[in-house]
Amino acid sequence: MLTMIQQYHIKHLNFHKGKSLRSIAEETGHDFRTVKKYAEQTDFNEIRKPKRGRPSKLDPVKPIIDAWLKEDLNRPVKQRHTARRIYDRLCDEHQDIFNACERTVRTYVSARKKELYGEEEGYLPLEHPAGEAQVDFGEIVMIEQGQKVKGYELILSLPYSNAGYPQIFRGQNQECLLTGLKDIFEYLEHVPRIIWFDNMSAAVAGIGEKGERKLVDQFYRFALHYGFKPQFCNPGKGHEKGHVENKVGYSRRNYFVPEPSFSDIEEFNQGLFAVAEKDHCRKHYRKGRVINELLQDDLTAMLPLPAKPFTIGRMQKLSANKYGKVCVDTNVYS
């Protein structure tokens, strides 16, 4: 029997390419009768042999259990039947027809509850090859020139190696995003091939009905300049970039406790690279190799830096009011 791929290939050559059965047999090396069989086959449903069921000790009481569980749908969550309570009631109220152990009851109740209440949402583990990155902002408290203020950490994490590079800013606008990425690229002397983002306003201007993203022009220019491919999570699906989500919390606990204190934010950010490199001397949580070793694989798979750095900023034409002041991002300047 041929594999499904081989069956599909025969059907594709005959139906979509219009090739004769004889030419398909010569091309694939399969017997003519085998080619004819799969080319003319119209039903590809998997043939399933019916299972021979055997009676269960719960069969006499299954309608009773089902009725109790359906009644629970209209009850408060904390007053619904547990498997233990159902077992006790069956023992007390239906001794004449019930003769099963508690474990059997638990197994059946668990399966029926999943059918009645719906399965929990499942997630697929995301495997990222070397050279890919994820980016996110996280909120922190920092002390700048003696004043405690709210700030933001920007994290670029590399899921393959588990390396991460933080930078801190006073906001999380487009300039902060691009400046942080640019500084990290220049430190690494490489650019990740693919970078995952959530739908942050600094990069995404809007999402269409079919999920297509309209990116901010400056972000488009930045991505084109450095050559990376931006990828975006589905709305409300932060787990799709779970690595950087965890890295935000990790860096907050390990780098910013107690609150970072500085007078020059740019100088402090340069020092964060050394802090990150020190952290990369530990072993990967799953692969058993040192993060710094795996980081070399990441760097090898990345893109080189462009010869000319990207200039970050916005050109805007504004009209001053009668006091000679203009408003930029809710801030008023003379």
TrEMBL record:
<keyword id="KW-0233">DNA recombination</keyword>
<dbReference type="GO" id="GO:0006310">
    <property type="term" value="P:DNA recombination"/>
</dbReference>
<dbReference type="InterPro" id="IPR017894">
    <property type="entry name" value="HTH_IS21_transposase_type"/>
</dbReference>
<dbReference type="GO" id="GO:0032196">
    <property type="term" value="P:transposition"/>
</dbReference>
<dbReference type="GO" id="GO:0015074">
    <property type="term" value="P:DNA integration"/>
</dbReference>
<comment type="similarity">
    <text>Belongs to the transposase IS21/IS408/IS1162 family.</text>
</comment>
<feature type="domain" description="HTH IS21-type">
    <location>
        <begin position="6"/>
        <end position="69"/>
    </location>
</feature>
<dbReference type="GO" id="GO:0003677">
    <property type="term" value="F:DNA binding"/>
</dbReference>
<dbReference type="InterPro" id="IPR012337">
    <property type="entry name" value="RNaseH-like_sf"/>
</dbReference>
<keyword id="KW-0815">Transposition</keyword>
<feature type="domain" description="Integrase catalytic">
    <location>
        <begin position="125"/>
        <end position="299"/>
    </location>
</feature>
<keyword id="KW-0238">DNA-binding</keyword>
<dbReference type="InterPro" id="IPR001584">
    <property type="entry name" value="Integrase_cat-core"/>
</dbReference>
<protein>
    <recommendedName>
        <fullName>IS21 family transposase</fullName>
    </recommendedName>
</protein>
